[in-house]
């Protein structure tokens, strides 16, 4: 497995180019304005996306579980799908905690409003990044820049998911209704020059995203990234201790973070 080596510096320039919209982002982002013609966006789709964004912005605290499928096209032209799962707990103004267990890594990422900490459980190693500011947008963008990973879907944590997600959109429409995990959803599809993306939004008062799929159109095989969200909890407060990382006494601090070709964050001691 090839790896890209990114020094944990405040401003490296690596970015992963499969996001439809995350040009800021998270910033795990930035504030963007829609760059599309309103006439190209179906009003029903636009209204649902606005309602979802407003609902997410209004959540002071939440937790959610997720599963991802990330497709890679190998040199022989075969499409391989890698899966991972984890959870997110976040409180605006306080921080977030994300876990991710994939085929090559078991990683925890925490943000306490100042420092982003990455902990590799299997190797018992960690790295830390200084965030340029206290917002989720600033912390997630720093994560992306310093690790080279896009963290697709993190735009849903942005201060303005609608602006981030519609950045570069040239078309959008309501496909219809669908059932995700037994929950009725509105199925939306949007396009940009580089990618197509779809999102399934829970119907009713709780306008929560339950599935998000990004298709990279101009890469051989049109690989997809799929994110499925479940077990949303938007009524309970999160304990601020969740966001405070205290490294185990025997953990080794690293100065480098590695990302690989399957989109995994890898923390290794190098020994």
TrEMBL record:
The keyword Transmembrane helix does not apply. InterPro entries: DUF2092, LolA/LolB/LppX. It comes from the Bacteria. Keywords: Signal. Residues 1-37 form the signal peptide. SUPFAM superfamilies: Prokaryotic lipoproteins and lipoprotein localization factors. This is DUF2092 domain-containing protein. The lineage of its organism: Bacteria, Pseudomonadati, Pseudomonadota, Alphaproteobacteria, Hyphomicrobiales.
């Amino acid at each position: 497995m090839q790896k890209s080596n990114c020094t944990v510096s405040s401003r490296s320039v690596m970015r992963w180019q499969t996001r439809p919209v995350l040009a800021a982002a998270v910033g795990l982002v930035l504030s963007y304005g829609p760059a599309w013609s309103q006439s190209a966006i179906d009003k029903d789709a636009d209204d649902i996306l606005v309602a979802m964004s407003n609902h997410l912005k209004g959540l002071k605290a939440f937790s959610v579980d997720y599963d991802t499928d990330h497709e890679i096209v190998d040199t022989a032209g075969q499409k391989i799908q890698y899966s991972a799962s984890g959870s997110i707990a976040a409180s605006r103004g306080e921080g977030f905690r994300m876990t991710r267990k994939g085929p090559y890594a078991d990683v925890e990422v925490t943000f306490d409003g100042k420092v982003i900490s990455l902990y590799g459980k299997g190797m018992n190693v960690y790295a830390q990044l200084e965030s340029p500011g206290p917002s989720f947008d600033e912390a997630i963008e720093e994560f992306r820049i310093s690790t080279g990973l896009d963290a697709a879907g993190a735009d849903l944590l942005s201060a303005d998911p609608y602006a981030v997600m519609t950045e570069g959109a040239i078309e959008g429409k309501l496909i219809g209704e669908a059932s995700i995990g037994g929950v009725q959803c509105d199925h939306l599809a949007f396009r940009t020059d580089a990618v197509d993306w779809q999102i399934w939004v829970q119907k009713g008062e709780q306008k929560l995203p339950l599935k998000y799929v990004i298709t990279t159109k101009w890469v051989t095989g049109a690989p997809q990234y799929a994110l499925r969200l479940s077990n949303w909890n938007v009524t309970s407060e999160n304990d601020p201790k969740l966001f405070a990382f205290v490294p185990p006494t025997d953990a080794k601090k690293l100065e480098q973070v590695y990302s690989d070709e399957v989109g995994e964050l890898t923390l290794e001691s190098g020994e």
